[in-house]
Design goal:
Layout lengths: L10 E2 L10 H6 L1 E2 L3 E6 L2 E6 L3 H20 L6 E3 L6 E3 L4 E3 L3 E4 L18 E5 L5 H15 L3 E6 L4 E8 L3 E8 L16 H7 L3
Parallel strand pairs: 1-2, 9-10
Antiparallel strand pairs: 3-4, 5-8, 6-7, 8-9, 10-11, 11-12
Helix pairs in contact: 2-4
C-alpha cells in the first residue's frame, strides 16, 4: 500500500490580517470564528462582524427580493447572502462574500467549483464605516472583471444607493439613487427597491 501524504489544514485568524495567500489556499482554509474574512488581491482582510443594524438592512433587502420572487416565479434562479455564496475571482486572486447576490441562470457546475464560474447578475453591498473603502474602491473592478451586470452599493451613511451598470461591456456606468427616488432594472421587470424602508430599518 502506498502512503498518501495528507495536506496540512490551513487555519487563519485575526492575526493573519494583511498576510499574503493564494486563492486556492484561502478557499480551503479554516477560519477562526468571530470575524469576517475575505481575500483582496491575494491579501487576507479581516474585519469585525457588522453591527445588528447592518444585518437588519440586509434582511430588509432580502425580504423585498423574496416578495418579488413570490410574485414573479421563475425569474430568479438563486439568491443568497455571503454566508451561502461567494465569488472566487481567479485573475485578481480575490474571494468575496457580498451581502446579497441574485442569480438569474442556473449554476454551470456543481459543488465548490461553481463559485469560480457562476456569475450573479446583481451583487449588493451594504456599506458600513469599516467597509466603505472596500465597497467603493476595491470591489467594483473585481465584480466587473468577474462579469457581474449590476453592482448596487447601498450606503446608509449617505442615504443613497450607487448603481454600477455594465456599459458596452467595457466599463461601469454610474447612477446615484437617493432614498426618495425609485430605481428599476431591466434584469428584474417590475422590481424597484424600497430604499426608504431599507434605511429606516437600519436606524432602529
Amino acid at each position: 500500500m502506498v502512503a498518501v501524504a495528507r495536506r496540512k489544514k490551513i487555519k487563519i485568524g485575526p492575526k493573519d490580517h494583511g498576510k499574503r495567500m493564494s486563492l486556492d489556499e484561502f478557499d480551503l482554509a479554516e477560519a477562526q470564528e468571530g470575524h469576517l474574512y475575505e481575500l483582496n488581491k491575494g491579501v487576507i482582510e479581516v474585519s469585525n462582524v457588522p453591527v445588528p443594524n447592518h444585518g437588519r438592512m440586509v434582511g430588509e433587502i432580502r425580504t423585498q427580493f423574496v416578495l418579488y420572487e413570490v410574485a414573479h416565479p421563475g425569474v430568479i434562479d438563486y439568491m443568497s447572502g455571503g454566508s451561502d455564496a461567494k465569488l472566487l475571482i481567479g485573475e485578481s486572486q480575490s474571494e468575496r462574500h457580498p451581502d446579497w447576490l441574485v442569480y438569474l441562470t442556473p449554476a454551470p457546475l456543481e459543488g465548490n467549483a461553481a463559485w469560480s464560474v457562476w456569475i450573479p447578475e446583481i451583487v449588493i453591498e451594504v456599506v458600513s464605516e469599516s467597509s466603505a473603502k472596500r465597497d467603493y474602491e476595491d470591489k467594483p473592478a473585481e465584480y466587473f472583471e468577474f462579469g457581474v451586470k449590476e453592482y448596487w452599493i447601498v450606503d446608509p451613511l449617505k442615504n443613497i444607493m450607487t448603481v454600477l451598470t455594465r456599459w458596452r461591456g467595457m466599463q461601469w456606468q454610474t447612477k446615484v439613487v437617493k432614498a426618495s427616488q425609485k430605481y428599476s432594472t431591466v434584469l428584474l421587470p417590475g422590481f424597484s427597491p424600497n430604499l426608504k424602508a431599507v434605511f429606516a430599518t437600519g436606524k432602529k
